Write the structure tokens for this entry.
Amino acid sequence: MDERRIREVVAEVPERLGLDNAAVLTSGGQKIVLTGELGGAKAVAKIVLVPDGPSAATVIERAHREVELLAAVSSPNVVAVLTDAVEIGDRPDAVCWAEERLSGGDLTPLLHTRWAEDEVWNLLSDLATGLTACHELEVVHRDLSPGNVRRTDDGRFVLMDPGLARHLAKSALTGQFQPGTKGFMSPEHAPGGRPIPASDIFALGVLAFLALTTNFPVPPDIDDADYYRRLRTEQCPDVKSLRPDISDELATIVNRCLHRQSARRFLDGAELSSAIAESGRGSA
């Protein structure tokens, strides 16, 4: 799509979504994000540009699926969608929709220093709540990585961007491709695997391990074959080996999230939430 048509698409989106005072917030790759107001409330509009060629249908389907999933989920720890998905152009050239605008930022810049134990409990508790809302709908996020989690200014952790999610009951819709971000994959993401709710729990365990130690339990800076082999065959290190100061309760939960065998982890968000509640820890 040429630059002129992209500008035309961006100009059309606010009217189609009812977004007032629209301005470009970020632009990169195939996605543009606008900021503005919807019904007087702060909102963002996400614009997914549709490429030429055979991948166009997949991009359109994925955008519609993201909106469908967000609309079905009701949780303070999953970003809220505010409109239906709207296609721009006859081809179409783009798909757009509006979401609530959250304060704060994603976790990427926050994982270079070690977190206090209480903050990691909050991370686990909030994201377990968000995952519970997804897993109850038989939806696996499949890409629980720092860029897809937002920490708001009031300290709440919110799950974002389920565009790569897989609906367990609609495999024909969501396909068998195993997406994910290297470093935050589960053993089930390895070729031949099939992500399940416990796979999201593993990824959350990686986030908690990284927040506590600034190290990955399985280092991503190795070739893909070795990375997948280690995911499948090696047990992650005990988090207390790098953070001996944390409580046994937290270490037990993080280590269980990271068990190589999915049946030995918490099976889904609800089971993890129950364990956190039993420990008496988590978000206030």
Q: What stands out?
A: The longest helix spans residues 117-135. The chain has eight helices and ten strands. The beta strands are 20-28, 31-38, 41-49, 86-88, 94-100, 105-106, 139-140, 149-151, 157-159, 166-167.
